[in-house]
Structure formats: C-alpha cells, structure tokens
Specification:
The complex is a heterodimer of chains A (97) and B (17). With 97 residues, chain A is of the alpha+beta class. Chain A contains three helices and five strands. The chains are: A alpha+beta (97), B little secondary structure (17).
C-alpha cells in the first residue's frame, strides 16, 4: 500500500457505536452481501475515519502519533497493517490518482 | 499535551448468520 495513496470505503460502510463498542457496518456494495459486521477498537476507528475522510496513510499515521502515545514509526507500521486488513476485508479501496 | 493511551489497531469480522 502506498503511503501517499488515498482510499475510500468500498460501497457504503457506516461506523456505529453501541455502548463502548465500535462497529463498521457495510450497508451496500459487495461486502454488504456477506452479512458481516466488523468491530474495531479506538485506534482502528481513528484510522478508518482518517482514511475515509481522504487523508493518506502517512497523514493518518502522523495524526495517530499526535493523538495517541505512540512513536511515529510504529504508528506508520500499524497504520499500514490496519489499512491492509481493511482492504483484505473489502472495506476500502485505493482511489486512483 | 496529554496523548491518549495507545492500543494497536484491531479489526474483527463477525458473521451475523
């Protein structure tokens, strides 16, 4: 995944909070037909929000390191890994430049 | 600036069926 690329949700995916839990719920598009929901934790929600608001991986990682007590290098690695998981699950896709 | 405690980002997949 390119650190300078931007991403968008595949189809329509909404983030919902149920108590302290956070769920990504696909409501249309391919992954919605699989009848699955995707619980994420606080930092997962932060990355999801950053990427789907149009920030690049690098920008999202920098924001993550500024908001949470984590070293920038680890934030970059974790951000890249998490985005890769989002893509594997069919929740995001890269936006063509 | 007080930064929030960090947890490695995680995602799970729950099949509703």
């Amino acid at each position: 995944m390119s650190p300078a690329a931007t991403y968008r949700a595949t189809g329509k995916v909404v983030l919902r909070r149920i108590g302290a839990d956070r769920l990504l719920v696909p409501v249309s598009g391919g992954v919605a037909r699989e009848n699955c929901v995707f619980p994420v934790n606080e930092t997962g929600e932060f990355i999801w929000t950053g990427l789907t608001e149009g920030r690049t991986l690098d920008e999202t990682a920098a924001a993550l390191a500024a908001e949470f007590a984590v070293a920038p290098e680890r934030a970059r690695n974790d951000c890249r890994e998490f985005a890769d998981q989002l893509r594997t699950q069919g929740l995001i896709e890269e936006v063509a430049p | 600036t007080v930064r929030r405690p960090y947890e490695k980002p995680e995602i799970q997949r729950v099949d509703l069926a």
